[in-house]
Write a structure and sequence with these properties.
Strand order of the largest sheet: 1-5-4-2-3-6
Number of strands: 20
Largest sheet: 6 strands, mixed
CATH topology of the largest domain: Alpha-D-Glucose-1,6-Bisphosphate, Chain A, domain 3
Number of helices: 20
Structural class: alpha/beta
CATH architecture of the largest domain: 3-Layer(aba) Sandwich
CATH class of the largest domain: Alpha Beta
């Protein structure tokens, strides 16, 4: 491998000429402008020369075919290239990650983070707000997260802001909690959630701790677009201040999480009956969940080789709790230790994965829908019981779920007289509901909608309005509480799940994701989605849809009577209790297919589960064949 500095700048004209017919016109234009930047670093220049010398045309196109743009909630992109240059690797060992982020206008690196931070700062200066402006900045354990957080803090400080920076990695929900607690104007979280280790991102939060709204996102996006790639941290401003947050923020967050416990007796039972194995998957949950478990006296052990902050996620097949592989090692450890509950959180600890043991059924990994159903039932049942005991009828209890989350939650809510309100996919919409309810309470406290539970199929849940983001820490504590309550009723968690099926009906769901990357990926996704809009897919066995809902072109109102925003989302219903939803991801180059199955529960639930899984698998294969056919046309 050639060492940094070994590539000659004089070769650039020749290399650019060679690339003339290898790169798209847009990529060539961005690349030429990039090389003309007055503050181009040696690492950037040498990396471009190496990419062109090595004829890494696809990699160059990925890096320079676009300039990072701000989406609906932030920015997410690669920070490590598929091909790392010698300049980026620096003195890194053969098995180490690069020392420097990937160079390119379409990559997340020092230059792009500085540009995003300047754009955010300009936006915050343009809107009416209290002064001085303060921003809370957090980060997870991903590669370069600490660096990007520091760049963001230093940039905002240079603009005259108060930058409130967490001293080490912290979960995203703690950032959400800290913003209103510290009366900050906004928040920035450096994370790519559960993405692969080569990705990173920045998520922007409002003063109430919720993800940025569409209107604000548009304003931030326009402000960032006005910032040139060559922009530097400004000089000459009256500088602001930077503060490192202390342990008091952690303690206050712990108290809020603990306030979601409904039955101390259930926690006491859990101390006697539940043994936990926890894996933070090398993420920020290591800072928060073990202390929370210890404070409640819950017996637990850590998966040792997954309990170091490490953005490479070594020894982890997947850092995504939606992927059953993420819990494989923890389950093996639980078997050896005779534990009965496995918990895992993703790198920024906003999602919870879980596996439970039953003496009769053995070990079973819970889906996000099943975790949500267990928590929704327990919290609904207890909320109903407390209201009866106290004779309280003030306010309206509400259960929030996304449109792609199991309808078992709706059945549970209806059984307890709780209003079930569906939102578009994403916790920002759930947070928007909480913000709306807060406004209603300010006008009429006696008519206040209050949150019983909020959940989504992608392993996210929330049970307190003091946090406006999904919270894997709180979900873990609440699942333990639920397990303790179930034990007091003579059931395991899996037994409680079977009880729900027998009471409300049998529900099964499946999520399939299709990734279409590359220069033409966006166009292919758009074309595929349009084809399903025009020509609906078949149901199981070739059945025809009797209902088709288009949330991108039709008006839909939720249970509160509120008009849903338009979104590229299709939902089809079929005769035998099945539905298919198709949705374009807002943050990733993916189209997602959600398959739903519902029937009456049968005596042998295990056999019923196997038949449902086979039916959903066969259905997906038919849908996938349709996808391949449509993409080939």
């Amino acid at each position: 491998m050639r060492s940094p500095g070994a590539f000659s700048t004089s070769s650039l004209p020749r290399l650019l000429a060679q690339a003339e017919d290898k790169l798209s016109p847009n990529c060539r234009a961005i690349l030429r402008d990039f090389l003309a930047l007055p503050n181009l670093s040696s690492i950037e220049r040498e990396s471009v020369i190496e990419l062109l010398s090595a004829q890494q045309w696809e990699e160059t196109e990925q890096r320079f075919g676009t300039t990072l743009f701000f989406g609906t909630g932030g920015i997410r992109s690669r920070t490590i290239g598929r091909f790392s240059t010698a300049a980026e690797r620096g003195d890194a060992g053969p098995s180490d990650p690069p020392r420097f982020p990937a160079v390119g206008s379409g990559m997340l690196n020092e230059r792009s983070v500085r540009r995003i931070s300047l754009g955010l700062g300009d936006y915050l200066l343009s809107v009416p707000a209290k002064r001085p402006i303060s921003v809370v900045i957090g980060y997870d354990t991903r590669l370069f997260s600490a660096l990007f957080a520091r760049i963001c803090a230093e940039t905002l400080q240079a603009l005259g802001f108060v930058a409130l920076l967490f001293p080490e990695e912290r979960p995203t929900p703690e950032l959400s909690f800290a913003i209103p607690r510290l009366s900050a104007n906004a928040g920035v979280m450096v994370t790519a959630s559960h993405n692969p280790p080569w990705d990173n991102g920045l998520k922007i939060y409002l003063c109430d701790g919720s993800q940025i709204t569409a209107e604000a996102a548009e304003g931030v996006s326009k402000a960032i677009a006005c910032i040139p790639l060559a922009a530097e941290i400004p000089e000459g401003h009256c500088p602001g201040t930077m503060h490192r947050l202390g342990d008091d923020c952690d303690q206050a967050y712990f108290e809020v999480v603990e306030s979601t416990i409904l039955e101390p007796s259930a926690i006491r039972k859990a101390r006697q009956s539940i043994q936990v194995v926890y894996t933070p998957l090398h993420g920020a949950g290591l800072r928060t969940l073990p202390p929370l478990l210890a404070r409640q006296g819950i017996s637990y052990s850590l998966v040792a080789d997954q309990s170091t902050p490490d953005g490479r996620f070594p020894g982890v097949s997947s850092a995504n709790p939606e992927d059953p592989r993420s819990l494989a090692e923890a389950i093996e450890q639980a078997k050896a230790e005779a534990a009965n509950l496995v918990l895992g959180t993703d790198p920024d600890a906003d999602r919870l994965g879980a596996a439970a043991h039953d003496p009769a059924a053995g070990w079973r990994i819970l889906t996000g829908n099943q975790i949500a159903a267990l928590l929704a039932f327990y919290r609904s049942e207890r909320a109903f019981a407390h209201r009866v005991e106290e004779g309280s009828n003030s306010g309206t209890p509400v259960l929030l779920k996304t449109l792609v989350t199991t309808d078992l939650l709706r059945s549970i809510a209806e059984a307890f007289g709780i209003r079930c309100v569906e939102t578009l996919t994403g916790f920002k919409y759930i947070a928007a509901k909480l913000r709306r309810y807060e406004g209603i309470a300010a006008r009429d406290p006696t008519n206040r909608p209050w949150l019983v539970f909020a959940g989504e199929e992608s392993h996210g849940s929330l049970s307190t309005e003091q946090v406006r983001e999904k919270d894997g820490n709180a979900a873990a504590l609440q699942l333990i509480e639920t397990a303790g309550w179930a034990a007091a009723q003579g059931m395991s968690l899996l037994g409680l799940l079977d009880f729900l099926y027998r009471r409300f009906g049998f529900f099964a769901e499946r999520l399939q994701t299709l990734t279409l990357e590359g220069v033409d990926g966006a166009e292919r996704r758009k074309r595929l989605f349009a084809s399903f809009r025009q020509d609906p897919p078949m149901g199981p066995g070739g059945s025809l849809a009797f209902d088709a809902e288009d949330f991108g072109r039709e008006d839909h109102w939720d249970a509160d009577g509120e008009l849903l925003p338009r979104e590229e989302f299709l939902r089809f219903s079929f005769p035998e209790g099945e539905r298919l939803a198709i949705r374009c991801s807002g943050t990733e180059p993916k189209i997602k297919f959600y398959l739903f199955h519902r029937t009456e529960a049968q005596d042998d639930l295990r056999s019923q589960e196997r038949r449902a899984e086979a039916r959903l698998s066969s259905w997906w294969q038919a849908v996938k064949a349709e996808v391949d056919r449509r993409l080939s046309q």
